[in-house]
Specification:
By secondary structure, this protein is an alpha/beta fold. 39% of the residues lie in helices and 20% in strands. It has a six-stranded mixed sheet, sandwiched between helices. Strands 12-11-13-20-14 form a five-stranded mixed sheet, sandwiched between helices. The protein has a five-stranded mixed sheet with strand order 17-16-18-15-19.
Length: 661
């Protein structure tokens, strides 16, 4: 890659001894010959990032790499064009350009240097003004001199900091056209800071949108697939122009609303544990599943007590709906939740009023399976294709019925994704019914359902009782998927920031404890006692080999229960965005037009990183790279609607602006 901005943070010290985090975890790659624009509201760190690429400033963490070498200082391979021209007033146009050329090409013959100077004067159309000084030039002409001077030393990278911001509209338009022509002709790589949406679309191959500071990061990247060479009037008439323009403006409007809300009610961040907890008794809800282990470990191993929580009441709830109701009502203060539930509650699912939920941690990844009845196995249903064939024939006397634990669970979303990949419509070709996890096996045994998608230990119990077989685990569909999260009502967090911080640290430390293989036998005993479930059902997949049933030999499944390793606890916004696409795909909730605002509000990476810092863990939000599930469909977080519309089966799409205030 030509330019690589590698996990860059920029922190400025403050006079009072504190610090200001301007940029956080900026990850961006720029191809040679590409024109990239940085856009965002004032104070988002656009110019700071540009200065680091130029070598005028250094990153606090991470770094910027140009052609395999880290940028540590300014150099002639990068030239910056500033808004204020930066011309020497006592030198003419020709002499200002010559100043740069003579410095960089001092060893070249004088005639060759002169040729370079004259070529670039001609390139920007200033032949008739070559002997004039800056005070004799218009603003547009001065900027052309600055561009000519920058290009004359043939830089590898042209950096432009709002180069046309001080110019009138007519002059700006002409210069934009000229710059575009020069960049296309010279194949120069350019990075430009701008506030102008139309300018960004006209000039750029990609528009990088930055969120508000502090801790500004890349919120979205828009690929501008408009044909080149471009002409302004042709560009604005292109059918994709206004949809792309609306996308950028929508992003900026979202950031404006976030800024207004933060100004009216500053966001409470995690604070050092030297401060007194607002309350030392907390109620935490969970469902009897293997992956509730971190909560039980946090209580039994004293992690809650370690961080000042004197009494941690763990309440075993009957269903995920009960979890939702009790977190909204305030009867419980925190809860184990299926990954889509916090987003759905925040959006206002099923006619509920919007209740923003804060998620500082992913509690577990993986751990689910799709189990079908042994009757289907005996009929030759061993694979997804067999299931499709069985549904398509008249041999089935009725529609198959499969159990799911909640509409907003990863169980439902991944089961639907798996079925739809084979052309099975989960709403029309079979029946899906919501059943609490602990009731799945009884329903399968009675024949009320033909299978289910659920977490452990219920798949294993069905296999060991001989009534079911596992046709797929979530490792077969999306290895590393976010299964359960730790959720809080946002208003409770704002009122109890220190207590919230204590809970997050205690549970995060418990997650680490759960992923240590030496502790798994102890955890098995704790789960057996708390869940009142036989250890023979909990053990497979947690400690020993996992048994799928049928004629398949038991196998070791690495990461089948993943609680901490590989940065598992980070509540990644990209994963949350995928969940939003699937909730909208099946008509469970509308797709939020202000999805970035929703994700920033719910998936609290800042809380997670602060907890990691306090515990001495290495915490980072992974790159915003596209990813894919088992079927090879690529999810690009910058094009969620395209991904959604290209799904093989989906319901009618609803897009809606969600008001969270």
């Amino acid at each position: 890659m030509f330019v690589q901005i590698d996990h860059v943070d920029k922190v400025f010290p403050l006079a009072n001894g504190g610090s200001y985090v301007a940029l956080k975890n900026i990850e961006l790659e720029i191809r040679e010959g590409e024109f990239v624009s940085l856009i965002g509201h004032s104070g988002c760190g656009k110019s700071t990032l540009l200065n680091m690429i130029a070598g005028l400033d250094r990153a606090t963490a991470g770094g910027v790499i140009l052609e395999g070498r880290e940028i540590t200082e300014p150099g002639p391979d990068r030239m910056v064009v500033f808004q204020n021209y930066s011309l020497l007033p006592w030198l003419s146009v020709r002499e200002n350009i010559a100043l740069a050329v003579d410095e960089v090409y001092s060893r070249q013959p004088k005639g060759e240097r002169k040729s370079i100077i004259e070529h670039h004067i001609e390139l920007v159309g200033l032949q008739n003004s070559a002997t004039k000084r800056p005070n004799e030039l218009s603003g547009g002409m001065k900027q052309r001199v600055a561009i000519a001077r920058a290009l004359a030393i043939r830089p590898k990278l042209l950096l432009l900091d709002e180069p046309f911001g001080a110019l009138d509209a007519l002059t700006r338009g002409g210069l934009q056209e000229q710059l575009m022509h020069i960049c296309e002709e010279s194949r120069v790589t350019a990075v430009m800071v701008t506030h102008d949406v139309d300018e960004a679309l006209l000039l750029s191959d990609r528009v990088v949108m930055l969120t508000n500071g502090p801790e500004s990061n890349i919120g979205q990247i828009l690929t501008v697939d408009l044909p080149r060479p471009r002409r302004r009037m042709e560009v604005v008439k292109h059918p994709d122009y206004y949809p792309m323009r609306s996308e950028i403006i929508n992003f900026l409007n979202q950031q404006k609303r976030v800024k207004q809300r933060q100004s009216a009610k500053p966001t409470q961040l995690l604070v050092p544990q030297t401060k007194k907890l607002e309350q030392t008794t907390v109620n935490i809800g969970y469902i009897p599943l293997t992956d509730c282990a971190p909560l039980i470990v946090a209580k039994e191993k004293g992690f809650f007590t370690k961080y000042g929580i004197e009494i941690a009441n763990l309440f075993q709830e009957a269903s995920w709906d009960a979890i939702a109701n009790n977190i909204v009502s305030g009867e419980i203060h925190a809860a184990q939740m299926v990954a889509g539930l916090p987003l759905a509650l925040t959006l206002g699912m099923n006619g509920r009023p919007s209740t923003p939920i804060s998620v500082p941690l992913v509690l577990s990844r993986n751990g689910n399976a799709i189990t079908l009845s042994t009757q289907l196995y005996n009929q030759g249903v061993y694979t997804l294709q067999n299931l499709k064939a069985a549904i398509s024939t008249v041999t089935l006397e009725r529609k198959l019925t499969l159990g799911i634990v909640h509409d907003c669970s990863m169980h439902n979303l991944m089961l639907r994704y798996w079925l739809a990949s084979a052309g099975i419509d989960p709403d029309n070709d079979l029946n899906l019914v919501v059943i609490p996890p602990q009731e799945m096996v009884d329903r399968l045994r009675s024949g009320a359902i033909d299978g289910f998608c659920v977490g452990e230990p219920w798949n294993t119990q069905a296999v060991q009782e001989g009534i079911g077989f596992v046709i797929a685990t979530d490792l077969d569909i999306w290895a590393g998927n976010p299964e359960k999260v730790l959720g809080f009502k946002e208003s409770w967090v704002q009122q109890h920031p220190n207590t919230h911080a204590a809970i997050v640290q205690a549970v995060l430390e418990a997650c680490e404890y759960c992923d240590e293989p030496r502790h798994r036998q102890e955890i098995l005993i704790l789960l057996t006692e708390h869940l009142n479930i036989s250890p023979q059902y909990i053990r497979p997949g947690l400690i020993g080999p996992f048994d799928r049933g049928g004629n398949i030999l038991p196998e070791i499944l690495p990461r089948y229960h993943q609680f901490h390793v590989e940065n598992a606890n980070c509540p990644r916004k990209v994963e949350g965005l995928w969940i939003l696409t699937q909730l909208a795909r099946w008509g469970i909730v509308p797709f939020p037009k202000n999805h970035l605002e929703i994700l920033t509000r719910v998936r609290r990476v800042d809380h997670f990183l602060k907890a990691c810092q306090q515990l001495g863990y290495i915490g980072i939000e992974p790159d915003r790279d596209p990813f894919q599930l088992f079927d090879g469909q690529v999810f690009n977080p910058d094009e969620p609607l395209n991904y959604l519309r290209n799904q093989p089966i989906h319901r009618e799409l609803t897009i809606k602006e969600i008001d969270l205030d």
